[in-house]
Amino acid sequence: MPLVVLPDGREHRADDPAAAQVLSTLLDRPLHLRRQSSVPHHRRRLRSRDARAA
């Protein structure tokens, strides 16, 4: 599960409802965290970066 790390060092698991609330307050707008869609964006980006490094 992804971990949300705030600038002040607090950490919240992405599936923790408190994470969305804290981010909403920090950004001064409603925010909802949800599971990623069927496209694993972060994995694709990591593979691309790893390929460039090789």
Describe the protein:
The structure is a single chain. By secondary structure, the chain is an alpha+beta fold. It is 44% helix and 11% strand. The chain is built from two helices and two strands, in the order ββαα. A two-stranded antiparallel ribbon has the order 1-2. The chain starts with a strand and ends with a helix. The model has no long low-confidence stretch (mean pLDDT 78).
Topology:
Elements: E1 3-5, E2 11-13, H1 17-27, H2 41-53
Antiparallel strand pairs: 1-2
- Fraction of residues in helices? 40-55%
- Low-pLDDT runs of 5+ residues are none
Q: Find the structural class using helix and strand composition.
A: alpha+beta
How many helices? The count is 2
The largest β sheet comes out as: 2 strands, antiparallel
How do the helices and strands follow one another from N- to C-terminus? Answer: EEHH
pLDDT average, as an integer?
78
Strand order of the largest sheet: 1-2
How many domains in all?
1
* Strand residue percentage: 5-15%
Q: Separation of termini? A: 28 Å
> How would you describe the shape?
globular
Integer-rounded radius of gyration: 14 Å
Number of extended strands: 2
Which descriptors would you attach to this protein?
single chain, 54 residues, alpha+beta, two-stranded antiparallel sheet, 2 strands, 44% helix, 11% strand
